[in-house]
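chain below, 198 aa
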Amino acid sequence: MSALKNAFKGFDPNDMDFSASGNWPIGVKVVCYLLVIGIIVAAGWHFYITDKQAGLKREIAKEPGLKSVYQEKAFQVANLAALRKQMEDVEGKFEELKKQLPTEKEVPGLLDDITNLGTDSGLDIGSINLAAESKKEFYIELPININVSGSYHQLGQFVSGIAGLSRIVTLHDYSISPSGNKVSMQISAKTYRYDDTK
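prediction:
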């Protein structure tokens, strides 16, 4: 106990002079060293460890998302053969559908086919005109304006013939009105061309 008293002997905390710190008693110097070391450790803990802990928490927060991605990838790898087969099937179907779309060179022939269907059905052809094409994301839409007249039966046979064409043709916006002893029909047909510039 006396050694502890001697370590602080002659030190007056009310009369601290930092310029004479070299003459302070050994006990005061030890306390000051411990305080400085404590401040350095606390600052290091705050600026280094706290930052690392925040980074660790961020990484831990990512874990559920990464597990979900891992499970999805593991499922895909486990089903890779089935996915490849499915992809081949989709590509095959896509190629089949592309074959049903007329190429730019085949559009005039398609117009001839529609005209022949009209005359074979016994209709009077007013006009069959190709309108301005419209570009969509993966294909080009080619509207065809059709104006024909005949009996209801002949119109039905004509529409049924268009539906049976080997090329994809859809019918839209029709109007039917009586015209003497016949029926007049205006209808918009649309065919589609694959946009191979994509």
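The chain has two domains: 1-78, 102-194. The mean pLDDT is 82.
thats it, cya
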